[in-house]
Design a protein that fits this description.
The protein has 372 residues and is mainly α. Helix content is 61%, strand content 8%. It has helices at 2-19, 38-45, 49-78, 86-99, 102-117, 126-144, 147-154, 200-220, 237-246, 250-280, 286-299, 305-313, 331-347, 351-362; strands at 23-27, 30-33, 121-124, 167-169, 176-178, 224-228, 231-235, 326-327. It has a three-stranded antiparallel β-sheet with strand order 2-1-3. Helix 3 packs antiparallel against helix 4 (86-99), helix 5 (102-117) packs across helix 12 (305-313) and helix 8 (200-220) packs antiparallel against helix 13.
Length: 372
């Protein structure tokens, strides 16, 4: 199975990726070297503990957990080992797909390397090379993994019980169960069964509003300081894009603009549109809204590129008062926008848009209103 080979290889490569030298910079005969976890440690010491925690979880912990669980489950399926924990472990592995970000960190490493190379000597170490391979393997794993087939191998769905109109679907593994099973555990993945995600609208609305509040300082305040031409320069999100354009790195500039500015705006606008649709009971463009929600859900994690760029260059840019790099006040709000919007999409149930539209069509005009 190709997905098993990719996941197992990624898991093995994560060991040298975390232990071997990552980046090395040199200025006037003096060098600085980092390992993968250096950025999280340095952020903690430099007064940005939340940013350091996010980097540590998304780049170090979550990839180990995801590829470890995935390798164990796919190995058990491949060799037909009917172990009781397979469904639960595969559910956790799929949940971690969003939060394990070696592929996103790979793009951050490319941008950081391009920024550093313009000013000083920089070398990519064995750890970074292994992590680059992990990032590529993460993409290949997602491309080759057939989740439906794995779920069927874990526990095949028999004939759906009862009336089709009275069924509920597990949001983790798509298992069909009778409506009276709501509140119980899914027999395949052990997730709790609900007709709709509980408190979906309230949670998604609160998280989206919180992300909107963080969005303003994330874009208006300086994001990081980097020595450009050996002069410490503070830059915002858009200024970072402009610097890449001025360096004739048009492709990277376009990627960073999309990931750091366009995608966060699209996520907030898309979630706002979907939530407004539920509250208004709108029946317009429901298919388009549902597609937009799934796009927002998929691309949201790529906005972590800028914090990962900072994570790459900060540990190897500590020389003196003129040659240094550090995170600035916008870095933590920027990461919070990404995390809040990702959590909002996890909480939101797009089926509620269709439910609200159906209630509005069936109810008298005077009684139409937001869902309870």
């Amino acid at each position: 199975m190709a997905a098993l080979a990719c996941a197992g290889s990624a898991l093995l490569l994560l060991v040298p990726a975390n232990l071997a030298p990552f980046l090395t910079t040199s200025v006037l005969g003096v060098s600085r070297q980092s390992v993968l976890s250096s950025s999280a440690v340095f952020m903690q010491k430099d007064g940005w503990p939340l940013l350091g925690l996010f980097i540590f979880l998304f780049v170090v912990v979550a990839p180990f957990a995801r590829f470890g669980l995935l390798t164990a489950v796919l190995g058990a399926v491949q060799f037909d080992r009917r172990l009781a924990w397979r469904g639960r472990a595969f559910r956790y592995a799929n949940l971690l797909q969003t939060w394990a970000m070696p592929d996103v960190f790979l793009l951050g490493l490319v941008v950081a390397y391009a920024r550093l190379k313009a000013s000083i000597s920089v070398e990519v170490g064995i750890g970074a090379m292994c992590f680059i391979a992990v990032g590529v393997l993460a993409l290949l794993t997602r491309a080759t993994l057939d989740k439906g087939s794995v779920w069927e191998a874990i526990l095949a769905q028999a004939k759906p019980p009862g009336d089709p109109d009275g069924l509920i679907t597990c949001t983790s593994c798509d298992w069909l169960a009778a409506a009276h099973a709501a509140g119980g555990a899914c027999p395949r993945c052990e997730a709790r069964l609900y007709a709709r995600k509980p408190e979906s609208i309230g949670r998604a609305t609160a998280l989206t509003l919180a992300a909107l509040l963080f969005y303003l300082p994330a874009n208006l305040l300086p994001l990081a300081t980097l020595p450009i031409g050996l002069t410490p320069t503070r830059y915002t999100v858009l200024q970072g894009v402009i610097d890449l354009v001025q360096a004739n790195l048009w492709g990277l500039a376009a990627l960073v603009f999309c990931a750091s500015f366009a995608i966060p705006f699209l996520k907030l606008a898309g979630m706002g549109w979907c939530l407004h649709s539920v509250w208004r009971g709108s029946s317009r463009h429901l298919r388009g809204k549902t597609r937009l929600f799934h796009i927002v859900e998929e691309i949201g994690r790529w906005s972590m590129v800028d914090p990962f760029v900072i994570a790459c260059f900060v540990p190897v840019m500590q020389y003196n008062a003129l040659i240094y790099g550090r995170a600035e006040p916008a870095a933590t709000p920027f990461a919070m926008v990404v995390v809040m919007t990702m959590l909002a999409t996890r909480c939101f149930d797009p089926r509620l848009m269709w439910d609200a539209a159906g209630r509005r069509r069936s109810a008298p005009a005077s009684s139409a209103g937001p869902p309870a």
